[in-house]
Structures are given as structure tokens and as C-alpha cells.
Amino acid sequence: MATPTIRRGFVDVPGGQVHYRTAGEQTGIPLILMHPSPGSGLMLKPLLQAMGAKRWTIALDTRGNGDSSPLSGTPEIADFANATWQAIDALGIEECCLLGTHTGASIATEASIQQPARVRRLIIDNMGLWDSTQRQNHIDHNSPTIKPDMMGSQFNWAWHYCRDQYLFAPWYQRKEANRRHIDMPEPEVLHEFVVEVLKALETYNMSYSAAARFAKRDRLPLVSVNTMVSSSERDPLKRYLDELHSLVPGSVKAIVGDLETVDGALAAAEIYEAFISR
User: Fold this and answer.
1) Domains parsed from the chain with CATH numbers
2) 221-269 confidence digits (pLDDT tens)
3) What positions does the domain AB hydrolase-1 occupy (predicted)?
4) pTM greater than 0.85 (yes/no)
5) Residue 19 and residue 17: Cα distance in Å, rounded?
6) How many CA atoms lie within 13 A of 272 on its CB side?
């Protein structure tokens, strides 16, 4: 099957605009993709194309990430979930499937709790079920507030910040015990990642910090829609997959490919589509 064309657009929502990428024929029940922090929907381009070959698929830029307008104040995951529904409404979509990964998984989870009647299927791809110490470390260190300066130090910071996401987990604990031992992405992919972070330099941290504060273990048992939990073998959050599975009532569990690589996304799309369409 030919690789579908990705098209981009904006929708007006309260407080600004949401940017999105879409692929596939605009018929049937669409799949909404919610990306990991700190990038944008561009990070899920391989999955967008792989799923777009099977169904109408839309990758949103989370509010305050990529090209989407930020939310005001100090938003929590419930606010990002509500903002997701505002974007879905603006797109004229009544019923959909939701797929979120990492930070996007928290947003998709809360969105499914807010409006379960509108969610045909939910896919939660990796979620960090941290203890209180890990949670506080993420709040304190994972997404620092960065502002441009006259020396342009933000450019050097962003490159190393994005690069280190592939080297360590978490990125700020640069120790051998935290090495990921995976291949680095192609320079072009890393460049795109850095550019997306720079676009939202002063607001990228909002969703990241909200995900760290999100009471995941309390909220996951409230999910009432048909749910799959997934992870690739190489994802550092795979260690939480079994617990994640146990917390979501009636969920099914799957090992999938890496969603940010072409081959991994194609493999994952086969598993996801079988779950969505069954």
C-alpha cells in the first residue's frame, strides 16, 4: 500500500489554535495520536503514516508544544485532556479512538475518563508509574524553564537536551546505570526534534510537568473504555507495563515496535489496527 500523504492544518479553539497533521481517507472512526513530550506530533510521523494507510489518523500538537498555542496558568493533565476534546470538536469529530504515548498517554487516559462515550478504543503506550522520589525528581529536573538569551545559549541547550533523551533514561541522570544503549536517530530526525522544542521553548515544559504531577495510579482504574496497553522492548518505561496492565480494568497488553521508527511503527500499526477494528 502506498504511503499516505501527510497534510497539516490548524483549528481555532478557546485561547488560541491547535496544529495537527493528518493522513488517510477522512472517513470512518478516526484515530487521534497524542505525542510524547517534549516534542510535537512530528515525533509520531512514522506511526501517523503507518496508521494512515489503514484509517483516518490525526496527530495533534499538545497545547504549548510544537505549533499549538499554550494553555494559561499552570495546567494539569485534566486541562490538557479538555483541550484535546476542544480540538476534536473543532475538527467536527464526534467519536474517535485515542492513542497516547508517554505524556500523551496521560492525556489520552484522562480524556477517555472525561468523555468515555466518545472513545471507541484507547491505546496507552507507556506510562511512568514512578514512586514519590522519582516523581519529585521529574518535577524538579526533567523539564527546566528555558528562555532565550543574547548569547543564544538556548540553541546549545536544546540540542543536548534532545540528544540526551536517546542516551539516558531519565536524560538528567547521566550515569552508566541509566544508559539506554540504543542507536542514535539520524541527524535529520534529531534536528527536527530540536526545532520542535525550540518552537515552544518557553511552554514545552507545561505538559511534561503536568504528566509528572498526574496521579496515574489513582486515575487509571477509572478507565472504562476498551483499552490496550503497549510498549516496545527498547522503551525505558517498559518496566511499568505489567503494572499498567493490572491498573486498567479489562485491558489487553501488547509488545509493539518503536513508534518513532519506520519499521517499528509499521509493526505496531498491525497490532493496533487489529485491536481497533476487532
Assistant:
1) 7-140+205-277 (3.40.50.1820)
2) 999 999 999 999 999 999 999 999 999 999 999 999 999 999 999 999 9
3) 30-127
4) yes
5) 7
6) 37
